[in-house]
Specification:
The chain is an all-alpha fold. The protein is 79% helix and 0% strand. It folds into two domains: 1-200, Up-down Bundle (Growth Hormone, Chain: A); 202-413, MFS general substrate transporter like domains (Growth Hormone, Chain: A). It is built from 14 helices and no strands.
Length: 413
């Protein structure tokens, strides 16, 4: 691969816009339909808890796609797998519109996730292809800002669209967004990567690479602790429609605004983390935040069990836990990848798959609870926080000489 050519400001902005759109397609596909859960449940003659499983299947698809697209993008180039992924996403979006059964929606959402994952993985790979190495961290930071816009905008838009036109319209809009992205990729996005057709796609070499990564104590300690702590975000996303619209009977529009407001805690904490790293290391931040998240989780359970403070208490505790998640994610991700050079790609893919896989399992647990209070949500959040702390404090004993995360590095999945 040749060195990227210098970019004009206009070209730089345009590339960021396209890559940002690719990065945001998955999060928009998650957040935009959340306000539609009650409407979907009513229309498909099921429960909101059952609709939650369509979110779980989407996370499972994202986890599988992390492992699928990495080798394909390296062997066949960036754009061909991206075309296929976006085409799959479009077909699945149309399938979501046509679904008349909740089981069909759960299955089609899995396929939709497989398609959208191509966009996310390709956007990260193409940053390295299209921009000078010294610009990569800055570009990733800009893409993170685009990701941050998703939980702020998508649920609010979804709430108004669902109220005005019904839940099917959300998937129509997502399909139209994918069409625009596909056209931009075909006609304007360059492909600076030269495919390596010698790469093997046989399962055994790929699996051996992942096993090599898993044997590193620093990786499995931080990746599992981080993934379980980060599962709090997935549990919140899955449980929010049930709690806010099902228990507290808020409408779609109000739900969208509350979801956006709580997301500020997660997004703001991730930015505060950059300031904390000026004085503390990631190794110092992680255990403190893990303990704090566990404490908040236990308090949340106590509040939910006793029915204290009502909706206000739920909002405050969710905000505090999401702040902890925002602090944990960047640090555990960076520390998980720090020991690797040659296997960095496999480590990154495996980290994303584990994070999304564990998150999907926890969202399934939310779907199995039928409750009239926030107790199940609080209990699962406290449970994942406890498991994260236990794994960390046991695993860290096996990390003899921890490799520090690169200062200022930005990690995305």
């Amino acid at each position: 691969m040749t060195a990227p050519a210098p970019l004009t400001k206009q070209r730089y902005f345009f590339l960021i816009l396209i890559l940002g759109s690719l990065t945001a397609l998955g999060p928009f596909s998650i957040d935009m339909y959340l306000p539609s859960f009650p409407a979907i449940a009513k229309d498909l003659d099921t429960t909101v808890e059952r609709v939650t499983l369509s979110l779980s299947s989407y996370f499972v698809g994202l986890a599988a796609g992390q492992l699928l697209y990495g080798p394909l993008l390296d062997k066949f180039g960036r754009k061909t797998p991206l075309y296929v992924g976006l085409a799959v996403y479009l077909l699945a979006s149309a399938g979501c519109v046509l679904c008349t059964d909740i089981n069909a929606l759960i299955a089609v959402r899995f396929v939709q996730a497989i398609g959208s994952c191509a966009a996310a993985v390709a956007s990260v790979a193409m940053v390295r292809d299209l921009f000078p190495v010294e610009e990569n961290a800055k570009v990733f930071a800009l893409l993170v800002l685009v990701l941050g816009a998703s939980p702020l905008l998508a649920p609010t838009i979804g709430g108004y669209v669902t109220a005005a036109f019904g839940w099917h319209s959300v998937f129509i809009i997502l399909g139209l967004i994918a069409v625009l992205i596909l056209l931009a990729v075909i006609f304007t996005l360059p492909d600076a990567y030269v495919p390596d057709h010698t790469l093997s796609l046989k399962p055994l070499p790929i699996i051996n690479g992942f096993l090599t990564v898993l044997k590193e104590p620093q990786f499995f300690t931080y990746v599992f602790a981080g993934a379980l702590a980060f599962a709090g975000l997935f549990v919140y996303v899955a449980g929010a429609p049930l709690v806010f619209m099902g228990i507290y009977h808020l409408d779609q529009k109000v739900f969208g605004w509350i979801f956006a407001g709580l997301s500020i805690g997660f997004i703001g904490a991730s930015q505060v983390n950059s300031l904390l790293l000026n004085r503390f290391t990631s190794q110092q931040i992680v255990p403190v935040v893990l303990i704090a998240q566990l404490i908040f989780g236990v308090i949340f359970v106590v509040i939910a069990l006793n029915g204290w403070f009502g909706l206000t208490g739920v909002l405050v505790m969710l905000f505090l836990i999401l702040c902890c998640v925002g602090l944990i994610g960047p640090n555990t991700s960076a520390l998980s990848l720090a020991p690797f050079t040659r296997n960095a790609g496999s480590a990154s893919a495996l980290m994303g798959a584990l994070q999304l896989g564990l998150g999907s399992i926890m969202t399934m647990l939310v779907g199995f609870f039928h409750a009239s209070t926030a107790i199940p949500l609080a209990a699962i959040m406290a449970g994942t926080s406890a498991l994260a702390a236990i794994i960390y404090f046991i695993g860290i004993r096996f990390v003899k000489e921890p490799v520090k995360a690169t200062e200022g590095a930005v990690v995305m999945h």
